[in-house]
Amino acid sequence: MGEYIIEKALNNNVLIANYYGEEVVLIGKGISFGKKQGQRIEADKIEKIYELRGYHEQERYKTLLGMTNDRVIKTVIEVVDTIKEMAYGEVNDSILLSLTDHIIFALKRLEDGIVIANPFLKETEALYPKEFDIATKVVDMLNDKLRVYFPDTEKGFIALHIHSSINNHTMREMNMMTEVVARAVQIIEHDLKIQVDKDSLVYARFVRHISFAVQRVMINDRPPEQRNLEKLLKLQYPACYNIAVKIVKMMQQQLNKPVYESELVYLTMHIQQFNTEVEDV
């Protein structure tokens, strides 16, 4: 094992070190106590290591360190540790940088009284329930440790960061997914003249279906044709079938990829469930 050379101590338990020219965040009980810049850190003192990959990540993290105080940095690291534990270690180290960046600017907005709306909060919760549960715990931690009050909208933003880190999806890809879901629901509400209950099981199933449909489109996976069932649904539920056609066209525009007509069968059945739910009320 090579040597870890101290660059900056954040507190007694957290420091920034240099390891063969790469910057890393080292965590360990009393790891920084009595240590100075340029000194070596013994391997047996290190409990956790977060790598900052590449020049741009390293420079960005340095910039962020200068924009806030050690209390915030320490809290973010504790938050990342909690996320890793709750996600069974599935998250990659990039979340340290992305969450540090996000939380610093979220705190700044909070201080300035700026509230950013999150129109896809319910969609995010339905798409990524595990990550949303973790994000809820994270927001509670931040509020408690930093003595602030982040609104519920932060849960959605942080859930996306967690999902991105676990699955290596870009924020752009996830924003596209939530927007497709939101637009599909808008079409259903407009054409069926209903208000979709976003806490219902029907909504959760529909969101999951759209999620899988988008994933199929992105990898060009074609569901099996069901022509007879499609004809039957078109005759029996014409309004729902026409809505499904509109949603498929919207998906093609949003994703800039063809969506196979076989998706119409599944979409029509899900849309009819919204109709049934309203009729049963």
TrEMBL record:
Domain (PRD): residue spans on this chain: 64-172, 173-281
Ubl conjugation among keywords: no
Repeat in keyword set: yes
UniProt cross-references to InterPro entries, sorted A to Z: BglG_antiterminators (IPR050661), CAT_RNA-bd_dom (IPR004341), CAT_RNA-bd_dom_sf (IPR036650), PRD (IPR011608), PRD_sf (IPR036634)
Pfam families tied to this protein: CAT_RBD (PF03123), PRD (PF00874)
NCBIfam families per record: antiterm_GlcT
Name of the protein: Transcription antiterminator
